[in-house]
Amino acid sequence: MRPAARHWAMTAAGSAALARFTQAGMAPQQLPTSFTTQSASLRQLRSGASGEPVAAGTGRPASARGAPEPATVRGGCLCGRVRYRIAAPLADIAHCHCGMCRRATGGIVTTWVTVPLDAFAWEGEAPRAYDSSAHTRRWFCGGCGAQLALHTQRAPAGIDVTVATLDAPQDHPATRHIWYADRLPWL
Protein backbone atom coordinates (compact mmCIF):
# COMPACT_ATOMS: atom_id res chain seq x y z
CA MET A 1 0.00 0.00 0.00
CA ARG A 2 1.37 3.46 -0.89
CA PRO A 3 2.19 5.84 2.03
CA ALA A 4 -0.81 8.09 1.39
CA ALA A 5 -3.08 5.06 1.26
CA ARG A 6 -1.69 3.79 4.58
CA HIS A 7 -2.41 7.21 6.08
CA TRP A 8 -6.13 6.96 5.34
CA ALA A 9 -6.46 3.29 6.20
CA MET A 10 -5.72 3.81 9.90
CA THR A 11 -9.34 3.94 11.07
CA ALA A 12 -12.54 2.26 10.00
CA ALA A 13 -13.81 5.55 8.61
CA GLY A 14 -10.47 6.06 6.85
CA SER A 15 -10.64 2.56 5.38
CA ALA A 16 -14.16 3.18 4.07
CA ALA A 17 -13.12 6.55 2.61
CA LEU A 18 -10.05 4.98 1.01
CA ALA A 19 -12.20 2.27 -0.59
CA ARG A 20 -14.67 4.85 -1.97
CA PHE A 21 -11.87 6.99 -3.43
CA THR A 22 -10.01 4.01 -4.86
CA GLN A 23 -13.20 2.73 -6.52
CA ALA A 24 -13.77 6.19 -7.97
CA GLY A 25 -10.26 6.07 -9.46
CA MET A 26 -8.94 8.95 -7.40
CA ALA A 27 -5.22 9.22 -6.67
CA PRO A 28 -3.98 9.06 -3.05
CA GLN A 29 -2.88 12.71 -3.32
CA GLN A 30 -6.56 13.63 -3.55
CA LEU A 31 -7.44 11.84 -0.31
CA PRO A 32 -6.80 14.73 2.11
CA THR A 33 -9.99 16.33 0.86
CA SER A 34 -11.99 13.19 1.70
CA PHE A 35 -13.26 14.74 4.86
CA THR A 36 -14.04 17.99 3.07
CA THR A 37 -17.45 16.61 2.23
CA GLN A 38 -19.01 14.00 4.45
CA SER A 39 -20.24 10.79 2.93
CA ALA A 40 -23.96 10.02 3.09
CA SER A 41 -23.36 7.23 5.63
CA LEU A 42 -21.37 9.55 7.91
CA ARG A 43 -24.07 12.23 7.64
CA GLN A 44 -26.64 9.59 8.62
CA LEU A 45 -24.56 8.58 11.63
CA ARG A 46 -24.16 12.18 12.76
CA SER A 47 -27.62 13.52 11.97
CA GLY A 48 -31.24 12.43 12.15
CA ALA A 49 -33.77 12.44 9.35
CA SER A 50 -34.18 16.19 9.79
CA GLY A 51 -30.44 16.73 9.41
CA GLU A 52 -30.20 17.66 13.08
CA PRO A 53 -27.15 16.34 15.02
CA VAL A 54 -27.82 13.06 16.81
CA ALA A 55 -27.03 12.69 20.51
CA ALA A 56 -24.24 10.15 20.98
CA GLY A 57 -25.54 6.64 21.54
CA THR A 58 -29.23 7.60 21.41
CA GLY A 59 -30.17 7.88 17.73
CA ARG A 60 -32.28 10.90 18.73
CA PRO A 61 -31.60 14.52 17.88
CA ALA A 62 -29.35 16.21 20.44
CA SER A 63 -32.03 18.85 21.08
CA ALA A 64 -34.43 16.09 22.17
CA ARG A 65 -32.16 15.34 25.13
CA GLY A 66 -32.04 18.98 26.12
CA ALA A 67 -28.24 18.97 25.92
CA PRO A 68 -26.71 22.02 24.27
CA GLU A 69 -25.13 21.39 20.91
CA PRO A 70 -21.41 22.20 20.74
CA ALA A 71 -20.67 25.66 19.42
CA THR A 72 -19.16 25.66 15.97
CA VAL A 73 -15.76 27.28 15.76
CA ARG A 74 -14.45 28.41 12.39
CA GLY A 75 -11.11 29.43 11.01
CA GLY A 76 -9.10 29.67 7.85
CA CYS A 77 -6.03 30.83 6.02
CA LEU A 78 -4.70 34.34 5.44
CA CYS A 79 -6.10 34.74 1.91
CA GLY A 80 -9.49 33.23 2.84
CA ARG A 81 -9.52 30.47 0.21
CA VAL A 82 -9.36 27.58 2.68
CA ARG A 83 -11.76 27.57 5.60
CA TYR A 84 -12.66 24.95 8.20
CA ARG A 85 -15.18 24.37 10.95
CA ILE A 86 -14.94 22.51 14.24
CA ALA A 87 -18.07 21.21 15.96
CA ALA A 88 -16.51 20.30 19.31
CA PRO A 89 -15.28 22.08 22.43
CA LEU A 90 -11.71 23.36 22.16
CA ALA A 91 -10.13 21.92 25.27
CA ASP A 92 -6.71 20.40 24.46
CA ILE A 93 -4.59 23.40 23.45
CA ALA A 94 -0.79 23.29 23.61
CA HIS A 95 2.28 25.26 22.53
CA CYS A 96 4.56 22.95 20.50
CA HIS A 97 8.31 23.52 20.58
CA CYS A 98 9.39 20.76 18.16
CA GLY A 99 11.72 21.46 15.26
CA MET A 100 9.32 20.08 12.67
CA CYS A 101 6.60 22.56 13.64
CA ARG A 102 9.12 25.42 13.68
CA ARG A 103 10.21 24.61 10.14
CA ALA A 104 6.69 23.94 8.84
CA THR A 105 5.18 27.15 10.21
CA GLY A 106 8.17 29.48 10.36
CA GLY A 107 7.37 30.30 13.99
CA ILE A 108 9.45 29.64 17.09
CA VAL A 109 6.41 28.02 18.74
CA THR A 110 3.22 26.67 17.15
CA THR A 111 0.02 26.49 19.17
CA TRP A 112 -2.26 23.57 18.32
CA VAL A 113 -5.73 22.52 19.40
CA THR A 114 -6.55 18.82 19.11
CA VAL A 115 -10.14 18.04 18.17
CA PRO A 116 -11.97 14.84 17.18
CA LEU A 117 -11.43 14.07 13.50
CA ASP A 118 -15.16 13.59 12.96
CA ALA A 119 -15.87 17.08 14.40
CA PHE A 120 -13.62 18.77 11.80
CA ALA A 121 -14.53 19.67 8.21
CA TRP A 122 -12.89 21.69 5.46
CA GLU A 123 -14.91 24.43 3.78
CA GLY A 124 -14.15 26.46 0.70
CA GLU A 125 -11.14 25.51 -1.41
CA ALA A 126 -9.40 22.24 -0.57
CA PRO A 127 -6.05 22.61 1.19
CA ARG A 128 -2.78 21.19 -0.09
CA ALA A 129 -1.10 18.37 1.85
CA TYR A 130 2.46 17.55 2.78
CA ASP A 131 3.65 14.37 4.50
CA SER A 132 6.21 15.77 6.96
CA SER A 133 7.05 12.30 8.27
CA ALA A 134 6.04 8.68 7.78
CA HIS A 135 3.17 9.18 10.24
CA THR A 136 2.18 12.86 9.89
CA ARG A 137 0.38 14.79 7.17
CA ARG A 138 0.13 18.60 7.30
CA TRP A 139 -2.39 20.76 5.44
CA PHE A 140 -1.78 24.28 4.20
CA CYS A 141 -3.31 26.78 1.81
CA GLY A 142 -1.92 26.46 -1.71
CA GLY A 143 -2.46 30.19 -2.23
CA CYS A 144 -1.01 31.94 0.81
CA GLY A 145 0.88 29.04 2.43
CA ALA A 146 -0.79 29.29 5.84
CA GLN A 147 -0.29 26.11 7.90
CA LEU A 148 -3.73 24.93 8.99
CA ALA A 149 -3.78 21.41 10.41
CA LEU A 150 -1.98 18.15 10.88
CA HIS A 151 -2.99 14.55 11.41
CA THR A 152 -0.78 11.88 12.88
CA GLN A 153 -1.21 8.13 12.84
CA ARG A 154 0.01 8.21 16.44
CA ALA A 155 -3.36 9.75 17.44
CA PRO A 156 -5.70 8.65 14.63
CA ALA A 157 -8.96 9.84 16.22
CA GLY A 158 -7.92 13.50 16.31
CA ILE A 159 -6.69 16.32 14.12
CA ASP A 160 -4.51 19.20 15.28
CA VAL A 161 -5.47 22.67 14.09
CA THR A 162 -3.28 25.78 14.38
CA VAL A 163 -4.89 28.07 16.93
CA ALA A 164 -3.55 31.14 15.12
CA THR A 165 -5.84 30.35 12.16
CA LEU A 166 -9.02 30.28 14.27
CA ASP A 167 -11.32 33.25 13.64
CA ALA A 168 -11.00 34.18 17.35
CA PRO A 169 -7.65 32.76 18.57
CA GLN A 170 -7.66 35.14 21.54
CA ASP A 171 -10.55 33.13 23.01
CA HIS A 172 -8.55 29.88 23.14
CA PRO A 173 -5.37 30.09 25.26
CA ALA A 174 -2.94 27.21 25.53
CA THR A 175 -2.86 25.27 28.78
CA ARG A 176 0.41 23.40 28.34
CA HIS A 177 3.67 23.04 26.40
CA ILE A 178 4.73 19.99 24.40
CA TRP A 179 8.17 18.99 23.12
CA TYR A 180 9.50 21.52 25.64
CA ALA A 181 12.94 19.89 25.71
CA ASP A 182 13.27 20.88 22.02
CA ARG A 183 12.56 24.58 22.67
CA LEU A 184 15.03 27.14 21.41
CA PRO A 185 17.51 27.88 24.21
CA TRP A 186 17.04 31.64 23.97
CA LEU A 187 13.27 31.43 24.36
Give an overview of the whole structure.
There is one protein chain. By secondary structure, the chain is of the alpha+beta class. The protein has 5 helices and 10 strands. The strands form 2 sheets. Strands 6-7-8-9-4-3-10 form a 7-stranded mixed beta sheet. Strand 6 and strand 7 (136-140) form a beta hairpin. The N and C termini lie far apart (42 Å). Mean pLDDT is 73; it is low at 1-67.
Defining traits:
187 residues; alpha+beta; seven-stranded mixed sheet; three-stranded antiparallel sheet; disordered N terminus
Order of helices and strands: HHHHEEEHEEEEEEE
Unreliable residue stretches:
1-67
Termini Cα gap: 42 Å
In angstroms, what is the radius of gyration?
17 Å
Q: So how many helices?
A: 5
Quaternary structure type:
single chain
Question: What is the residue-averaged pLDDT?
Answer: 73
Helix content: 10-25%
What class would the helix/strand composition place it in?
A: alpha+beta
Our estimate of the beta-strand percent is 25-35%
| Overall number of strands | 10
Choose one word for the global shape.
globular
Within the largest sheet, what's the order of strands? 6-7-8-9-4-3-10
Main beta sheet: strand number and arrangement?
7 strands, mixed
